[in-house]
UniProtKB/TrEMBL annotation:
Gene3D superfamilies associated with the record: Glutaredoxin
Flavoprotein keyword on record: no
Name the record gives this protein: Glutathione peroxidase
Organism encoding this protein: Drosophila busckii (Fruit fly)
Domain Thioredoxin: 67-212
Amino acid sequence: MNLKHMQSIGRQASRCFRLSAVAANKPSQQRRYCVVLLPLAVVHCTADTKKAQYSTAAGIDMSGGDFKNAASVYEFTVKDTHGNDVSLEKYKGRVLLVVNIASKCGLTKNNYQKLTELKEKFGERGLTILNFPCNQFNSQMPESDGEAMVNVNGDDAAPLYKYLKAKQTGTLGSGLKWNFTKFLVNKEGIPVNRYAPTTDPMDIAKDIEKLL
């Protein structure tokens, strides 16, 4: 699979995530969403009773309160590309790996491949990988790709990323340095580690296994 194909699949994946809201007059109706396996082209739809192992979101809002006072990532809500809210509480009890992705970065091919390997290795055991498209680093996730973007740095950074950076600061400050910075979150929703963009996802495997 060449890089151009990988980038095309990445664009499809970011657009494919769906979450239909429960109708107000049908509280018993199950929500449905699509679990996107990057960089694979196959999309599996499952009921909300089965938690996603790999998903892509487009924007983030705080579900309530100041991010500095949040007890865990479960107090945050992500939005899919259609603006539907997805509470991170749905991933309670799972280990999370949060990654800011870009389709035209020199790190894209390796990260898409290795993140998929992590999902295949640990997904059934309780790992969920959450990807957030970001165009802040050299415009390597351009708007023309069709995805809504998330800011990870600056005053308008998403509250979830402000929280993650506050809990796990980097070597030279809390700001993210590039695409594919990775945050590892335990089953209690607490960020426990942060990895540089150049860290190979498979090098995180031993830390993930300790948390499962």
